[in-house]
């Protein structure tokens, strides 16, 4: 029976992990080891774009790509990992329980938005998954069938981090397109910070404040949502905001699968790994993307839960899982270059470089770069074997 490199997930880390493992096997001219991916669909869901309109089109089929590079896809929903027997249990499309064994495993099952045990949280939308973002878009379009009212025209975004800011600043234009230019639209961000965009640094914060003000996005600072219901939210201060739309963007946590492993995790559930991305204490298991607490340099910086880090983590994990199986020297994961490109709706976008987030581009110039990233750079490579394998080289820098 063939040895198997098993990848869980088809997000950015899973996709690039599979391609990079296939690349390493191709370099060594080995066809006796299988690269297999298990996930609900052979699709990359372009999660960084879920705050935008027309979200249903923000996926990319991977069937042809996997076929040309020789990666086997198994449709399934993984329920458990046994690191001792090296077995993964999953449900197939008929809900039957199945198992796959592995020689090396790459856990790239991503993360989920935190949904706390808050009264009425079921009334809140999010943009964490493709289906949830589609549900939100349908809801927004459905508002046009309701009578004009302050609650209909108001959206509360809980959380003023990266996702909250991008979602909030995109909403005024989306709502005008749905409700008409005459609607009195209100978008309110509720955030624990003491100033707008505080979590993104001193240089970024005033730019976020300017873009928010120009688009009519207001903030409730130093506050949090204490309850949600079908008609709005109640803040910790006791203030009531009537809103038919509440969007939850407060924090993310690594896939629950990480909790099944006898390994050290950080506060977000991410697995501690060595510089080759092997999970500490588990010889045959690698982690990539949002499941991974990995050092990106020698200065104390660690990978963020972003696609720019997931792509490089996937490439390194895939390469090293294959190299380990083949007895080839691994590479040390390193990603010292860190950038951000924050969409700010019709105002434009903001591009920064470095962990101190030095502002490089703003407004229309930033928006042009953001569009290049969102519509090109983060999508899978062409389904051409040589092109796809070359693109999976772990030494290629990632700047998206």
Automatic annotation (TrEMBL):
<protein>
    <submittedName>
        <fullName>NADH dehydrogenase</fullName>
    </submittedName>
</protein>
<comment type="similarity">
    <text>Belongs to the NADH dehydrogenase family.</text>
</comment>
<dbReference type="InterPro" id="IPR036188">
    <property type="entry name" value="FAD/NAD-bd_sf"/>
</dbReference>
<keyword id="KW-0560">Oxidoreductase</keyword>
<keyword id="KW-0274">FAD</keyword>
<feature type="domain" description="FAD/NAD(P)-binding">
    <location>
        <begin position="4"/>
        <end position="312"/>
    </location>
</feature>
<dbReference type="InterPro" id="IPR045024">
    <property type="entry name" value="NDH-2"/>
</dbReference>
<dbReference type="GO" id="GO:0003954">
    <property type="term" value="F:NADH dehydrogenase activity"/>
</dbReference>
<keyword id="KW-0520">NAD</keyword>
<dbReference type="InterPro" id="IPR023753">
    <property type="entry name" value="FAD/NAD-binding_dom"/>
</dbReference>
<keyword id="KW-0285">Flavoprotein</keyword>
<dbReference type="Pfam" id="PF07992">
    <property type="entry name" value="Pyr_redox_2"/>
</dbReference>
């Amino acid at each position: 029976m063939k040895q198997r490199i098993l990848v869980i997930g088809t997000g950015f880390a899973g996709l690039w992990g599979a391609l990079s493992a296939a690349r390493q096997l191709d370099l060594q001219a080995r066809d006796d080891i299988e690269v297999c991916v298990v996930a609900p669909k052979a699709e990359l869901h372009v999660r960084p774009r879920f705050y935008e309109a027309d979200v249903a089109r923000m996926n990319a089929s991977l069937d042809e790509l996997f076929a040309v590079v020789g990666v086997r896809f198994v449709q399934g929903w993984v329920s458990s990992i046994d690191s001792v027997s090296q077995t993964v249990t999953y449900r197939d499309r008929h809900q039957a329980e199945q198992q796959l064994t592995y020689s090396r495993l790459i856990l790239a099952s991503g993360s989920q938005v935190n949904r706390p045990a808050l009264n009425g949280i079921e009334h809140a939308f999010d943009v964490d998954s493709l289906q949830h973002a589609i549900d939100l878009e349908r809801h927004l379009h459905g508002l046009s069938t309701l009578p004009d009212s302050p609650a209909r025209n108001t959206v509360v975004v809980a959380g003023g981090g990266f996702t909250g800011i991008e979602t909030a600043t995109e909403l005024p234009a989306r709502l005008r397109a749905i409700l008409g230019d005459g609607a009195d639209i209100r978008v309110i961000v509720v955030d624990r910070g003491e100033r707008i965009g505080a979590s993104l640094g001193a240089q970024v914060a005033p730019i976020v404040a300017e873009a928010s003000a120009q688009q009519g996005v207001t903030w409730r600072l130093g506050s949090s949502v204490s309850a949600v219901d079908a008609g709005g939210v109640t803040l910790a201060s006791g203030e009531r905001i009537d809103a038919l739309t509440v969007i939850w963007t407060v924090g993310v946590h690594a896939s629950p699968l990480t909790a099944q492993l006898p390994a050290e995790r950080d506060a977000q559930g991410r697995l501690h790994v060595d510089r080759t991305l092997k999970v500490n204490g588990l010889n045959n298991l690698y982690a990539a993307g949002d499941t991974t607490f990995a050092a990106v340099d020698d200065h104390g910086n660690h990978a963020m839960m972003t696609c720019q880090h997931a792509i490089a983590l996937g490439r390194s994990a895939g390469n090293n899982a294959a190299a380990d199986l083949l007895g080839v020297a691994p590479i040390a994961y390193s990603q010292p270059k860190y950038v951000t490109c924050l969409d700010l709706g019709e105002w434009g976008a903001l591009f920064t470089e470095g962990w101190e987030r030095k502002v490089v581009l703003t407004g229309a110039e930033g928006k042009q770069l953001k569009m290049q990233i969102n519509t090109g750079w983060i999508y899978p490579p062409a389904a051409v074997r040589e092109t796809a394998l070359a693109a999976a080289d772990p030494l290629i820098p990632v700047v998206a």
